[in-house]
Amino acid sequence: MNYLEFEKPLSEIEGKAEELRALARGNKEMDVEKEAAALDKKAETLLKDLYKDLTPWRKCQVARHPDRPHCKDYIEGLFTDYTPLAGDRNFADDHAIMGGLARFNDNPVVVIGQEKGHDTKTRIERNFGMARPEGYRKAIRLMDLAHRFRLPVITLVDTPGAYPGKGAEERGQAEAIARATQKCLELAVPMVTVVIGEGGSGGAVALATANRIAMLEHSVYSVISPEGCASILWKDAEKMREAAEALRLTAQDLHKLGVIDRIIKEPLGGAQRGRRETVEAVGKAIEMMLKELTGRKPDWLIKDRRNKFLDMGSKGLAA
Fold first, then answer.
1. Which of 20, 87, 192, 207 is buried most deeply by CB count within 10 Å?
2. Are residues 278 and 224 in the same domain?
C-alpha cells in the first residue's frame, strides 16, 4: 500500500500490526494476534476520521493515488469480448487513450478511456494519461464507428489534462480537443461518462460531453489543476490548497452545480482500498445511466446532451 501524506499516522499503525504478525510467523510460540487486532481496530477508527470530511486538496491527492483502479482495470473487470482498436489513421497510435469494441452486460458498446499506467514503464508508455492530438483523433474515429453502428458510447476519464508539449501543439492539440467535443455533441447514440480519477481541463471534456456523467466519490473534475491555478493567480504553486477550495472540483460540489448527474460511493479509504468493490460500483452506475437512455430517439439524445451543457451551472446559480 502506498500512503498519501495525510495518511502517515495510519501507515505507522498498520505497519506496526504487520510487523507483529511477521514476527509471529517467524516464531510460532509468540501470540500477538490480540495486540495486532487492537492495532487494526485503532487503524480502522483513524481511517474513518481521515476520510470523514476530506478537504478538496486531499481529494485531489486521493484521486491521483497510484493504486486506484485505472481505465484498463475497469475494461478488464466490466467488459467482455473487448477488441482494442489502435491509431487515428493519420499520424500514430496514442497509448494514453485506449478503446475499442466490447460487450457490457452482453450488449455491444464502444468503450474509450484514458489510461495512466501502473508502474514506471507503463506510465511512460501511456504518457501519464496525457493524450496527444492523435489520441483525441483516435477517440473521434471510435465515436464515428459507434454512431455508424448505433452502439452506445461509454467513456472513462482519468487525466491531469491534455499533453501540452511542442509536438502536440504543432499537430493541432486544441483543434483535436475541440473536434472530439463537437463529435460528442453530434452522436445520435447514448453516451455516458464516469470520472474515475482526475478530470483535467479540455483533455477530460473531450471525452466527457455526455448525456450522463458520474464521478467517483473522491475523484476531481476541473478546468485546471490546483497547482496550475495557483501558479497563474498567485504566482505560487504552493497555494494549491487555496486553489483547490476555489475551483469547486469535488464530486459533491459539481453535483450541486449540476455539472454531473451522480456520485458513485467509494470504499472507506478510497478506491485503492477496495478495487473490486469500486469496479463493481462503477459497473452498476453505468448500467443505470444506460437504462435511462435506452430506447430514446437519436434527436432526443442529441438535444438532451446539448441542453445539459447549455444549462450547466444554472442549478447552482439559482440556489
1. 207
2. yes
Question: What's the pTM?
Answer: 0.91
Task: Over range 129-151, report the average pLDDT.
Answer: 96
Confidence band for 269, pLDDT divided at 50, 70 and 90: very high
pLDDT at 41 over 80: yes
CA 25 to chain centroid: 39
Please name which of 108, 104, 3 lies closest in space to residue 46, comparing C-alpha atoms. 3
Q: What is the distance between the alpha carbons of residues 311 and 67, in angstroms, rounded to a whole number?
A: 36
Mean pLDDT of 109-123: 95
Pairing of strands 97-104, 79-84: antiparallel
**Residues 133 and 225 reside in one and the same domain:** yes
Same domain assignment for residues 80 and 174:
yes
Considering the domain architecture, whether residues 313 and 273 belong to the same structural domain is answered as yes
Name the β-bridge partners of 194.
Answer: 156, 214
Rounded to 10°, the helix 173-186/298-310 angle is 130
Write the pLDDT tens digit of every residue in 160-186: 999 999 999 999 999 999 999 999 999
Q: Tell me how many domains the chain contains.
A: 2
26 or 151: which carries more pLDDT confidence?
151
| 121 and 179 in a common domain | yes
Q: For the segment 253-265, what is each residue's pLDDT rounded down to a tens digit?
A: 999 999 999 999 9
Per-residue confidence (pLDDT) for residue 237, from 0 to 100: 84
Strand partners of residue 154: 111, 192
Quick one: 30 and 85 in the same domain? no
Q: What is the mean pLDDT of residues 79-102?
A: 95
Same domain, yes or no: 116 and 36: no
| 31, 52, 73 - which closes a domain | 52
Whole-angstrom CA distances from 99 to 102, 136, 270 are: 9, 11, 26
Residues 140-169 as b/e (b if ≥16 CB within 10 A, e otherwise) read: bbbbebbbeeebbbbbbbbbbbbbeeeebe
Structural domain containing residue 37: 5-52
